[in-house]
Amino acid sequence: MATQYDVVVIGCGPAGERAAIQAATADRRVAVLERANVVGGARVNWGTIPSKTLRESAVHVYALTRQRLHGIRAEIPDEITVADFMQRERQVVQRELELINQSLARFPIELFRGEGRIIDPHHVALVGSHGQTRMVLETEYIVIAVGTRPNRPANVPFDDECVFDSDTILSLPRIPKSLAVLGAGVIGVEYAATFAALGIEVTLLDTRAELLPYLDREIAGILERELRRLGIAIIHDDKHESISRIDGDPPLVRCTTAGGLQIEAEALLYSVGRDGNSASLGLENAGITPSSRGLIKVNENYQTDQPNIYAAGDIIGYPALASTSMEQGRQAVRHAFNLSGHAVRTDHLPFAIYSIPEVSYIGETEETLRAAGRDYIAGRGLYAMNPRGQIAGDTGGQLKLIFSADTLQLLGVHIVGLGASEMIHTGQALLESKASAAQIAETLYNYPTLSDLYRHAALEAIVAARRRQE
Fold first, then answer.
1. What's the CATH number where 298 sits?
2. Residues 309, 119: contact at Cβ < 8 Å?
3. Mean pLDDT of the region 120-138
4. Structurally, how many domains does the chain consist of?
């Protein structure tokens, strides 16, 4: 006999957690199936929180050992492990896990450890570690929130000793003296910058002709310039042909590229794409066919081809952010049970790249506006001309505002530099309120702050607009 629920959520990362809580607050009977021994998904356990904690430690080391802004000199041991740097990470992750468990415990949510496998559109099996069916759950709705995993092609010899993916790189036994990063997406760029800040020789191999092509090209150019200043060697428009291990003490990894280059390093991070964790879900039993990358197609309400089965989070692909995943989980449940609530557009949220320096953006770029045939005016605020930027030692950063040429209404915000991921939210609020350049320029900001760059950028746009009229 199957145990009956209103909704069964498969996966307890950001999307699954928020979907479950949304249903429970509406007095629905909720079951959550999580195959890992901890909740939180990649956000807490393998990805976002651990990698950003390591980045924060790297920035601290960089400031003390190489930047030396305040004349303070520090030395670090020659041999240091990732575990040494991750001491703070363990504390942060543990606290996050406690908060998630406390949040789930506040609601009548039943959490089961095991893998979820769909039997038919209204029945889900809880599968044990040996493939046995432990119990069957009957449900009106199913929400799939199982996330993704790093792509591991057969011609890459992953050994988690010299060759790693983004889920295993933080298990390095020691900090290598050199690192090759294959793949210059967000993950690759972030890890390349982090390890370079630790003084490691980093080579970044980009399969594309331009770095992060969806960024505003001016901002991307500044980011690439700053990454090179950090000591990263960047190779564009090339890809790996073969990867082999060279035994020694320590062993090396040799990557031969399609362009004929040979890159040797003590460690290699392969970070080209991620695949959906859908292979063992039993999607075929519900008439759902995933993409070649294991991702699940959904409509605007996060329904799959089976209307009572929803999917949210990384498993549905772009934008694959924790913030969007949470909102997608909530919206899926709201639609399923016809619950009221504000529907946030998850395609119009701020993005952040936690490189060194940070990049964050929202709205239109120069390139998207030109492609649409829309006239625009851009204004810039330079960190080098801002006292807070001078104090912090970030003189390469920039805030860029893009306005409609006829109305000077704000259309896009792009930042590269210290605190970009925090500063973008001011831009988000201004964008949502349809603020004009004049309104932004006349707003008072604390002094000295980086936020005052908004005023400078808006004033520059106003001046540019007046010159056009002359």
1. 3.50.50.60
2. no
3. 93
4. 3
